[in-house]
Amino acid sequence: MAATVTVCATLLAPVAAAQPVDREPSIGPGLEWVAHRDNPFRQGDDPGFINSDLAFTGDHLVQGNYAGFSVWDIADPAAPELLSAVSCPGGQGDVSAVGNLVILSIDETLSDDSCEARRVPETEQNWEGIRIFDLADPRDPQYVAAVRTRCGSHTHTVVPDPASADRVFVYVNAYSRGASLNCTGRNPLQVIEVPLGDPRRAGVVAELDLFDDATAFGPEDRVAGGAETRSTTGCHDITAYPAKALAVAACRGDGLLLSIADPLSPVVLQRVRDPAVTFWHSGIFDNDATRIVFQDELGDGFINTCSPAFGADRGADTVWLIQPDALAKAGTFKLPRTQSDLEKCVAHSGGLVPVPGRFIVAQAWLEGGVSVIDFTDPAAPVELTWFDRPDYGYAMDYTAGIWSAYSYRGYLYASDMYEGLEVLRLTDPLFADAARYDDTGLNPQTQPAYAWVWREAPVVPTAEAERAPLETLVVAPAALEPAATAAVSVSLPPGSLEDGETADVWWMPTQAVLATVTAGADGALAATEVSLPGPLEAGRYDLVVRGDASAPRLAIGTVDVVAEPRPAPEAEAEAADGVPWWPFPLALGVLAVLAASVALLVRRRRARS
Amino acid sequence: MSERMPRARPGARRSRFTVVAVSTVLVLTACTAAPDDGTTSPAFVTPAPPGGSSSSAGSGTSAASDDATIADVEFLTAMVVHHEQAVELARLADGRAADEELAHLAIGMQAAQAAEADAMRSWLGKRPGGGAGATDHGHDGGMRGEISRSMLDRAAEVDGPAFDALFLAAMVAHHRGAVEMAEARLGEAGDPGVARWARAIATAQSLEIDRMLEIEARLGGVSR
């Protein structure tokens, strides 16, 4: 804890350092607070400038805001650098990043689609929908497209096209909000196509209602003694899991499991309701897609539901098992730390922390902070650690606190509506694999399938034809004498690995990792000395280098351990090289015979003459 | 009240709440200005609109007008009082209500409306004109479905089915009033945050009305 305080004191900007001492967060075990950055848009307590969700692309973090979005360079997670704060108002700024494109949700009625637009009443002519920006120069993002939607976009979800890498689909999630010019009744799911090469051509390509009057939750569906569940007038959020062709939709009164095998025609696989749930807000799959955690946003984020007055199963997380013909509720989790009634607290957005064999989630609870929760045993979820600021000493308007928290490249990034950006690190060895995960980008509502290639030893092909092209690893020296142990150096030429990826050097006789290395920017592996475990007996042994990103590709090298080497006679050495020895004595013999013949002839001539 | 908003910028705040003739330009300046931390201001950019986009919708001139703020303050001032009445009645249900579902519903109403009223008081406390006497603008405060003092006194003196009937009659009318107040606010321009709040109130209280009508029907009361 002392170390944490020191780190924070040096990283906090002057403005943040001036905060009252009692705003210092409570931080749970195994969690390090590595960086804080103020919300660049903040205007005191004005709720028109609060941060919302996060998206990641390479070294860039995009943070949505009701007044636009921020772009942070997080190449060094402990020192995020603000590259730009794009002023383009319109809540709630739900955000995704696809390569260089940033997609932003606008769910407030505006006078037009420009960044100078004013907010207008819902009953007037208005614009709301999706904005698309080009981040090619992250210090000067360009506004490239605006797509008007029926009911704005409260959130959205990027769904890749399984048939083409040249475009993505965007599911627009929104629901009607009462008195409105355009946004009434039950809002259908609208699908936008974004051509990545020419995002200016983005537009709505499909529209479908996931419900009908019988399946949409209505006032008559409420259960006595249950929650004041909201009517289903559209979906609040969708989380897609493209590798499994699944998605989970949280639609106010209903939860849905969808097949997105054809992203333009999602099919409802399961429908689920729960008398304890007021507002189906969002959902998260486990990595195997066998379980889902749903969040219930009781009270719209405007009040503190994390108090005994609301109970342990309201405004909570619920865990559901995906079974062949139903979703089965298996457990409930509520933030265990009671919050002050000056705080807003309820289950909010989060994502998977990739730990093999476990179902661990990092999730925001507004002013309840960030909670890291282990759902591996769904009947008994447990909070592993937390980050939680105390109240402001007074209540913020509407909503406040941490909107969402996600794991990216081994760090947790938390978006605080007023305070800004918090970067946290899980220090327990349990998270070693999560820390090693080198994401190239992440839209948390488009769940990646995590694979931990480095945990299994590589399999070296035995067929010579398969093996030969892989023998690119340079081992020096390549021949050794039998010994208790030995050191060799391994290296790979440029282009062998992905740029900057993490790779392991494996010693195949014992299937042990000798070193974990980082590829150069040119994809080379600089000469790295490794110690071979002995005893080394005569034989030929394999070393393998495998990169996390370039796997399953391998680079194989060999070490020859040669028993009792002795100085060899020259002939034998040549023989060993495959040059025949017999021509030399033969030549000598032939020469001797020739010489004898010549001598005989000369003698005979002399006798004749 | 300024000590309750340590990081607020009173100047910017005032510009949004000045009652008469603040130009739209000044309001927009306050909304898009860089924050007080100078180290981040150079990073601010405002992109041009996308090429060929149709930026055509209403004039939007009423979005930032000064009446809007008055509408917000009046709505929330009235709603605080309105919520307090509901909390007071709901609190009486403990030990008096005969119907279990009604007793349960009352506990939820009490918790939610007390929390909302606190939040609204806090909002009002931070705004000029949002303190005591905020409704003294000569406007109609817009209170509908009020629960009178005599009604509360009567509720305190009965229990069992009599209490349930009285509770349902008063609270349904009260909630209907709240929905009307919220819808009236949504029909006017104002702070989009207050609009979101009004929407939430209208939705939550409509649901509770439906619930109470169900209970009333089950108890054999008159269906309205």
Can you give a write-up of this model?
With 609 residues, chain A is mainly beta. Chain A has three domains: 2-449, YVTN repeat-like/Quinoprotein amine dehydrogenase (Methylamine Dehydrogenase, Chain H); 456-561, Sandwich (Immunoglobulin-like); 570-608, no CATH class. In chain A, 9% of the residues lie in helices and 40% in strands. In chain A, the strands form eight sheets. In chain A, strands 1-26-25-24-23-27-28-29-2 form a nine-stranded mixed sheet. In chain A, β13 (189-195) and β14 (203-208) form a beta hairpin. The radius of gyration of chain A is 33 Å and the shape is elongated. Chain B has 224 residues and is an all-alpha fold. Chain B is 59% helix and 1% strand. The longest helix of chain B is centred in the middle third of the chain and has 27 residues, at 66-92. Residues 1-41, 54-68 and 132-140 of chain B have low confidence and may be disordered. At the A-B interface, β6, β9 and β10 of A face α2, β1, α4 and α7 of B.
Reconstruct the topology from this structure.
The complex is a heterodimer of chains A (609) and B (224).
Chain A: H1 2-11, H2 14-17, E1 26-27, E2 31-38, E3 51-57, E4 60-65, E5 68-73, E6 81-87, E7 92-98, E8 101-110, E9 127-134, E10 142-148, E11 155-161, E12 164-173, E13 189-195, E14 203-208, E15 237-241, E16 246-251, E17 254-259, E18 267-272, E19 280-285, E20 291-296, E21 317-323, E22 326-333, E23 349-353, E24 360-364, E25 370-374, E26 382-388, E27 402-408, E28 411-416, E29 420-426, H3 432-436, E30 441-442, H4 464-467, E31 474-476, E32 479-480, E33 486-492, E34 502-507, E35 512-518, E36 525-532, E37 539-547, E38 555-561, H5 570-577, H6 583-608
Parallel strand pairs in A: 23-27, 32-38
Antiparallel strand pairs in A: 1-26, 2-29, 3-4, 3-30, 4-5, 5-6, 7-8, 8-9, 9-10, 11-12, 12-13, 13-14, 15-16, 16-17, 17-18, 19-20, 20-21, 21-22, 23-24, 24-25, 25-26, 27-28, 28-29, 31-33, 33-36, 34-35, 34-37, 37-38
Chain B: H1 10-17, H2 24-32, E1 44-45, H3 66-92, H4 100-125, H5 149-157, H6 161-186, H7 192-218
